[in-house]
Amino acid sequence: MRAASGSLFGLAYGDSLGKPTEFQEYAAIVARYGPGGPRVLVGEPALVTDDTQMALAVGEALFEVGRITPAAFEPVLRRRFLEWAASPENDRAPGMTCLRACAALADGRPWTRATQTGSKGCGANMRVTPVGLKPGLTEDERAGAAQLQAALTHGHPTGLAASELTAWAVYLLAGGLAPADLLAALRERCSEQRKVYRGDWLGDLWQQPTVTSPEEFIARGWDETAAALDRVADALASGDHTGDPCLATGAGWIAEEALATALYVYLQSPDEPVAVVGRGAASSGDSDSIACLAGAFAGASLGLSAWPADWQTQIEYSDRLFKLGMAWD
Ligand SMILES: [Mg+2]
After folding, report:
1. Cβ contact 257:285 at 8 Å
2. pLDDT level of residue 300 (50, 70, 90 thresholds)
3. Contact, 34 vs 279, CB < 8 A?
4. Which has the closest alpha carbon to 28: 293, 252, 280, 244?
5. What are φ and ψ of residue 146, in 5° steps?
6. Would you kindly state where each structural domain of the chain is located, as residue ranges?
7. Which has the closest alpha carbon to 50: 5, 119, 97?
8. Quick check: 170 and 296 in contact, CB under 8 A?
9. pTM for the complete prediction?
10. How many other β-carbons are positioned within 10 Å of the β-carbon of residue 183?
11. Pfam families recorded for this chain (predicted)?
């Protein structure tokens, strides 16, 4: 089935389709591409954005480290992020939070003093899906790695919770969960994890002004993420899916909204992957991040063969996506 390859390439395809629409109004996107959004990759190669670049950084860090522990994963992840930040290819309108945190990480200080604690921007969420694809992780390793990769740059609890839930969604879909059951499973995860602070991974990150306990810190993140899922359920139940999806579930510049709007556009037609990424790109908000997550979901569920075959060689970083997918499938 090749779920890992399908998800990694799906992420890149969505990212590439959403790249030109990220900073466009919905009406302008529809006028140009139609209501289904862009559905043709453009360019040789078809360029992606920082979303795919950073997802590759996370994926290749996971690949490089055998057993994923906080001590083994953090320095490799840090090095991969810094390599990305310094790369001449880092010219794809990256988020300020990632740039600021990487600048601080570069001097070797503990990540807890480099991370942007006030930021729950979607920059940690758009790159997390490889964590859901790496085989052989325990539940704590998967959850801890998803949160730690977020925490290096985005220290806000909702950045952590939404990232973990995004990786969890990919993990469930790759494992064969029916898309119709996904939303309920994610909602349940929010309830189960609400007071689980992974101190082995996160250290004293919770010690922020006005926060009195680790449980209180992380519960805020899960509660905001759960509320975003409830908006997805309402939007799907409404039956009217015309128009800008961001009006229903959020613009996606912040972590829980990127997850929510990606889920919304995916769950409208989970068996039509090209329609899913086109719909994600036809959005007024953070179109590349919404479409890349939606593509990662569709690809995890349907596998590599569900995508147009010729896209595989057209997409930028095809060799790196292929290598990582082959290693995990
Ligand atoms: Mg981007």
Report:
1. yes
2. very high
3. no
4. 244
5. -65, -40
6. 3-328
7. 97
8. yes
9. 0.98
10. 18
11. ADP_ribosyl_GH
Q: State residue 165's pLDDT score.
A: 98
Ligand 1 centroid to Cα of residue 74, in Å, is 23
Over residues 130-171, the pLDDT tens digits come to 999 999 999 999 999 999 999 999 999 999 999 999 999 999
Ligand 1 centroid–CA 215 distance in Å is: 32
* DSSP annotation of 213: -
Residue 2: closest CA among 277, 128, 10, 40: 10
What SS3 class is residue 121? strand
Give the distance (Å) from ligand 1 centre to CA of residue 137: 28
Cα–ligand 1 centroid distance for 212 (angstroms):
35
Predicted local distance difference test score (pLDDT) of residue 77: 98
Measured in angstroms, how far is the CA atom of residue 57 from the centroid of ligand 1?
14
What percent of the chain is predicted at pLDDT more than 90?
97
The model's pLDDT over 10-34, given as tens digits with 9 standing for 90+, comes to 999 999 999 999 999 999 999 999 9
CA of 287 to the centre of ligand 1 (A): 8
- The alpha carbon of 123 and the centre of ligand 1 are apart by a number of angstroms equal to 8
Residues 6+ apart with CB under 8 A from 227: 256
Domain 3-328, CATH: 1.10.4080.10
